[in-house]
Design brief:
This protein is α/β, with parallel strands linked by helices and 273 residues long. The chain has one domain: Aldolase class I (TIM Barrel), CATH 3.20.20.70. The protein has eleven helices and ten strands. An eight-stranded parallel barrel has the order 3-4-5-6-7-8-9-10, surrounded by seven helices. β8, α9 and β9 form a beta-alpha-beta unit. α5 packs parallel to α7, α8 packs across α9 and α9 runs parallel beside α10. It starts with 6 loop residues before the first strand and ends with a helix.
Length: 273
Amino acid sequence: MPTLSHLHATQDSAQSAALPNANRPFENDLDADLEFDNGFFDAAGFAAETLSDWRRMAAAIDHTLLKPEATRTQVENLCDEAIRYRFACAMVNPVWVSRASALLAGTGVPVGVVIGFPLGATLASTLRQEAEALVRLGARELDMVISVGQLKSGEHHAVERTIRGVAEVAHQQGALLKVILETCLLTVEEKLRASEIAIQAGTDFLKTSTGFSTGGATAADVALLRGVAGARCGVKASGGIRSLADARAMLEAGATRIGASASVAIVRELGAE
């Protein structure tokens, strides 16, 4: 599996990209946090290691099926493929978590689920309840969408409190949290601000996109998110990643996780059968 030895933290608060993040208290002036040394992430080294073998590549991919018309049979096939290729997780919609958990029990492949998806306009209390219900059903990775409208309205503390509430639920149960910024809808300043808010609130990964909006992941956005994160958390690129070349570009830009529905095709390009 890809290692995270490429993360070199220079602060006590810097964490591995795959482990729950311990953060400094949320500050009134988030810009002040930019003065801290957030550690160094060796993107080139991580990319080279991950791309060296299809198994390492698979271990960095969230095998994903989120289309609304996905059937039970398709979800079962997704789980079978996740087991066969040892993907990082099988990512499904909430209604399928129970079934996926049953299929993946004892395999070592975790169930991932999206919450507040895809708009991010859900009540904070509802998000927390959804997270609590889904971890009880077996989800071990939660991908939540931020409230883009609140962010754009300058309601940064509301955004932070919502993320922190979900992070607390996830981490109490040993689950990971990935925060989806929906970068295609944000200005550069908003991407920077949202990234820092999410990190301060306790996210384990910054994630680019839902794949359901006006655009998906770009290498430029991944690099920007990694620049903010440093060694403090992981970065997940998702949305429109359909080939090994796409995945390579995201990894080289600083991603530690790839979200894709074309996962099998990607690892087969590296030699998987």
